[in-house]
């Protein structure tokens, strides 16, 4: 954690977490973003850009789109700017440190909003979505992407592996978030006042015939995320050290020769009513 950590963010702001977010975004770019394209000249706000892991893919797909990216963490924002500048030097991005509940933008300023892996960390996700409508023009679109840890199933199955995943779910809930939020996107977005809400599952399935996914998702995204909360899980007495180590070892087995791993993300698109 940095000394400027602005919120109780379960995954933290470490270099390890920054790398994990990058691996996650690069591995999943096709699955999550292939159908996200913003028209030339339109104004897009990425809310909670973190270290810019998704921003890179957005700007690559929209070279003539005007992107603005905000995050509450100044340290993450600085990393995002460095990442995007290094990878896509010609990108047009304006960076702001801001709380999404108090955005420093005029009403209806943006044509589109993009929110990825942010709502799962908020205590009031519906209120956040409702607040964001202020800066979105009538008829503009909202895109939200979230995961749902309840969608993780794998082979070999293991109660210990499920137990370590459940530690993450409990820790995230204790800090006000919801690691099972993917299944709630439709009611949340509808409840925040958007129209034409469509939610579609995006499934990741990895076995040895897809080594890039085994490495990029099963190992370096999902298992790495669970491993990173070891100390917090033990400190909160959610599990014994022995059972933790067994659960993590069993998660790694799902990335072995005969292992398989399944996880579902949810991608929602909605319209701000005219
Ligand atoms: C899991 S990260 C996701 C980052 C990025 N969207 C991605 O997919 O790689 C969540 C981000 O949301 C940011 N965040 C959390 N609450 C926020 C708030 N109230 N306003 C702005 N950003 C916030 C955190 O600082 C963090 O960078």
UniProtKB/TrEMBL annotation:
Pfam families attached to this UniProt entry: Methyltransf_11 (PF08241)
Record's keyword terms, sorted: Methyltransferase, Transferase
Keyword flag Transferase: yes
Source organism, top-level taxon: Bacteria
Keyword match Ion transport: no
Limits of the Methyltransferase type domain: 45-143
MF term (GO), any: S-adenosylmethionine-dependent methyltransferase activity
InterPro entries xref list: Methyltransf_11 (IPR013216), Methyltransf_Superfamily (IPR050508), SAM-dependent_MTases_sf (IPR029063)
GO biological process, any: methylation
Listed CDD domains: AdoMet_MTases (cd02440)
Name this polypeptide is given: Methyltransferase domain-containing protein
